[in-house]
Amino acid sequence: MFKKMTSAEKREAKWAYFFVAPTIIGLLILNFYPIIITIWQSFCKTGDFGRGNVFVGLANYQAVLTKTETWQSLWNTIKYALIEVPFGVVIALILAVLLNKKIAGRSIYRTIFFLPMVCAPAAVAMVWKWLYNTQFGLLNNIFHSSVSWISDPKIAWISIGIIGVWSIIGYNMVLFISGLQEIPGDYYEAASIDGATGLRQFLNITVPLLSPTTFFIVQTRIIGALTVFDLMFMVMDKSNVALPNVQSIVYLFYQYSFTNGNKGYGSTLVIVLLVFIMILTYFLQKLEKKIVYQN
Question: What is the phi/psi pair of residue 211, to 5°?
Answer without folding.
Answer: -60, -35
